[in-house]
Amino acid sequence: MPSEMENNGKDDGRTFHNASNFKETRGRKKKLTPKALAILERFLESNGFDGRTIPWEGLPRAAGLDIEVSGETVRRAVKEMHFRKIRFSDECHFGFGPQGKLWVIRRPWERHCPDCIIEKEEPAEKDKKRLHCWAAVGYNFKSDLIWYNVPGNNNGKMSLQIYRDKILEPVVGHWLRKGEDFIVEEDNSSGHGGGRNGQKKKNIVKQ
């Protein structure tokens, strides 16, 4: 009997999970193909509010698709389609260098053993080292880690100028110039232009 590897290059009606030259036939076929979803997306973008007021079950026909699908199927597909565009972003901070407080778990009889008690001073704030980075993740997407420093600020609190100059213009702007379609999701911190900074007239991030 021929092995799977010998049949790998032949079209005998069978599908092998790891064979790149065979088309996957397992599972239920989707009622809305990627091509149909792209047509729906273009229709919603071009018609704006008027397109969004159409009932879910009538949306495919309004977009010129001759398919019969339920309104719930269309609703789930459109929701997933928009979710895939979102890129969730935030900052992250790492500490290294002289260690601060440490929790030590001792056995009961070692608690007052002189050889197990070590007195250690807390390192000065200037000796503690921290690294700060920004990143974004989404559906089938992962950005690079963007490292940054905030002059005069050791805790990595993002400033408007750093966010604009290190993140928005060189990174997010690069995605836009490449023609990528996405939504950047961020929190409402002051460094992102939110909070009280969002109420200022000279908010360089919002500008």
UniProtKB/TrEMBL annotation:
Basic residues bias locations: 198-207
Source species of the chain: Pseudoneurospora amorphoporcata
Name of the protein: Transposase
MF annotations from Gene Ontology: nucleic acid binding
Transmembrane segments: none
Region (Disordered) location: 1-29, 186-207
